[in-house]
Amino acid sequence: MATNYKLERLNAGRDYIADNYQAPLSLSGIAKYSYMSPYHFLRVFKDTYGETPNEFLIRLRVEQAKKMLITENFSVSEICEKVGYTSLGSFSSLFLKQVGVAPTLYRRKLWALSTEAYRFPSQAIPACYAYHFLGKLAN
């Protein structure tokens, strides 16, 4: 368990990742920002948050990509670049692993729920309510 001082430094590193998820990040750079060695930062981060900094970064990027796939009209390649990936194949593989469907299929399924082309109702609406609201429940 991290002490308060270490927790503050860890939080600074975690905030740094969250603020710069679109940019290429390295473990040594993030650890340096938190005034820790990379190995110590990695170990304490995993012990404290239950995931590695890279897993946290991937989760942030995929969550942002999910939002953009639903609410923006960018291509999947453009979204891939906007969330910090340079390889569309890597992005698609990680997205599929995290979400369970490919980015294009994810977009098609959610856009199919909307009556407005290329738009899905606000992200704040829970999917179960959106299904009910749009009359898409199985009859």
From TrEMBL:
This is Helix-turn-helix transcriptional regulator. It comes from Thalassomonas actiniarum. The keyword Ribosomal protein does not apply. Keywords: DNA-binding, Transcription, Transcription regulation. GO terms for molecular function: DNA-binding transcription factor activity; sequence-specific DNA binding. The keyword Transcription applies. It holds the Pfam family HTH_18. InterPro entries: Homeodomain-like_sf, HTH_AraC, HTH_AraC-typ_CS, Tscrpt_reg_AraC-type_HTH. Residues 11-109 form the HTH araC/xylS-type domain. Gene3D superfamilies: Homeodomain-like.
